[in-house]
Amino acid sequence: MNxxxxxxxxxxxxxxxxAVTFILTSFFTLQSFNKxxxxxxxxxxxxSALQSLDAYVRDNYYGEINETELNDGxxxxxxxxxxxxxxxxxxxxxxxxxxxxxxxxxxxLGLSLVEDESGYIRITDVLPDSPAxxxxxxxxxxxxxxxxEDVITEGFEDSCNSMSGVDGTEIVLTVRRDGVDTDFRLVxxxxxxxxxxxxxxxxxxxxxxxxxxKENTPEQFIEALEKLTSNGARAxxxxxxxxxxxxxxxxxxxxxxxxxxGVIATAEYKDGHSExxxxxxxxxxxxxxxxxxxxxxxxxxxxxxLSLKDFGKAEIVGMQSFGKGVMQKVAELDNNGAVVLTxxxxxTTVSDFYNGIGVTPDHIIKNESDSYxxxxxxxxxxxxxCISEN
Length: 390
What we know:
The protein contains ten helices and 19 strands. By secondary structure, it is α+β, with helices and mostly antiparallel strands. A hairpin with a 3-residue loop joins strand 10 (196-201) and strand 11.
């Protein structure tokens, strides 16, 4: 039998539903409002304290204030206050330098430098096809002055910083070699950095060293890979020791020819959503592989090691890696500076997140001596075993 609801009861139910909806909406709106009020109050306190400090400094500071440096310092302090060792603010000049580095370029002289025990600057390496190599400056030369300013007087860091500059600008280095001081007049220029080196070892084992992942790394990597395989390589060793990571897109391009088709690695963001950061197509290199890593292998370099291990493509030799499994994004700001901000955690589709943990090698080997590379020799041994088993 059909039951009918009276018009009055129906109106009452609608009224009750509306009231409940209003109450719930009001509750969540009030929560959101209260949170915003707290945020506004916190921001007000923060900027009020900064305004008070600024007013006190401007009234009492004895020196001159460089407004650009002051603003950069404030923004650097904000990024530092996050307590994240990977997030940082970049000034305009630092951002330009970061862009050049990410692309695999360097504006400068082509020198690797350390502080000498004498207090001067010792050259440890000279890049080929650079202003320094063209001038025949050599490793172990000592820089005692930059543009006539004594290095010890100016300090190591300031002297090194003064060697940086714009493409096409001139600099004079006073270099001491065998007790003789000579002035070298150099012109800074853009230098393409080499991040991939390769050679064929005995038993047709191809060796590929990757020092970082720059935008130009994949081109160098593919060229090395094709050269080794066309020359008959029967196994490959990838050396990622001291590789601090770099560009994730470059990492993907390097992994693509080595791995089977599918999603290899993902990144998880603050709101909980995930994105694919490494995908491989159907082409896959069918050769035994070994990766060498150490405690300084980090970030994208760790993801390279872990991806090859997780998908059954390689064994890992060396030490537990650094454990930087978070990804940074560079965002340009209105003042032409930029913020480098940690935005996601990374992992392969096989393993869990490795941030703070690192990648565990299959063969734990520590280099005990500078004269004997135990890690590389173990990698050669593992590669040779793989060749004999195939």
